[in-house]
Amino acid sequence: DTAVSQTPKYLVTQMGNDKSIKCEQNLGHDTMYWYKQDSKKFLKIMFSYNNKELIINETVPNRFSPKSPDKAHLNLHINSLELGDSAVYFCASSQNSNQPQHFGDGTRLSIL
Amino acid sequence: QKEVEQDPGPLSVPEGAIVSLNCTYSNSAFQYFMWYRQYSRKGPELLMYTYSSGNKEDGRFTAQVDKSSKYISLFIRDSQPSDSATYLCAMSGSNYQLIWGAGTKLIIKP
Question: Which of A23-27, B48-52, B68-72, B95-99 has the lowest mean pLDDT?
């Protein structure tokens, strides 16, 4: 009965590889987000989708591409991984843009 | 200057003490204020959500917003070791895009 679930929990990979992280929410929310949390715990918004439509697209490298096949899923694909991509990536969802967000437990990405 | 400032700590207090966590902000358009708690290796979980100024209480937790001073606080009464976590403030204006503080690491010593 997990509300926001992300897979995988851990991802260790080589520089230059392409990887995807998946996110699903069973809360019936309309809005989903991707955040990056660095080693100092600072949360930075990357993308937000509302009903499968991109509404926030912060300044992130275009190697990062979100995809929302339906409003319950928001996946993140990363091309040509770099050392600086190492971080924890969190997915979140909310009823709509002005409601509090509910988070998954994160995907810990380590680039070797 | 960051839009939201939060002391990263760590803040270490003995069990049973009253804890005060604070954030200051610069954007007077902010009107939605939230406190999240994040345990190690977990996602942030919502503790308190307030709109505009005033106080809100939920069990041992009280959230306070002072818009005139651009200052928000979270008080924890009768603190427990299980309250040890990182506490993040977040806020937004009419565009609803959340701006986050850096988080304060809280340690409650038994």
Answer: B95-99
> Would you call A42 and B102 a contact, using CB atoms and an 8 Å cutoff?
yes
d(CA A50, CA A67): 12
Which amino acid, residue A97? S
B24 reaches A (C-beta below 8 A)? no
> CB-based contacts of B102: which residues, under 8 Å, 6+ apart?
A40, A41, A42, B6, B8, B88
User: How many angstroms away from the CA of B99 is the closest CA of chain A?
Assistant: 8
Tell me which amino acid residue A98 is.
N
B3 half-sphere exposure, CB direction, 13 A CA radius: 14
Tell me whether the omega of the peptide bond preceding residue B10 falls within 30 degrees of 0, making it cis: yes
Tell me which residue has tokens 């955040």: A35
Only one residue has tokens 């994040």, namely B38
Instruction: Compare A105 and A51 and report the one with higher pLDDT.
Output: A105
Query: Of A10, A3, A19, A22, which Cα lies nearest the Cα of A82?
Result: A19
The pLDDT, as a whole number, for residue A58 is 78
Q: Among all residues of chain A, which has the CA nearest to that of B49?
A: A100
Q: Checking DSSP bridges between strand A43-50 and strand B19-25, what pairing results, if any?
A: unpaired
Confidence of residue A54 (pLDDT cuts 50, 70, 90): confident
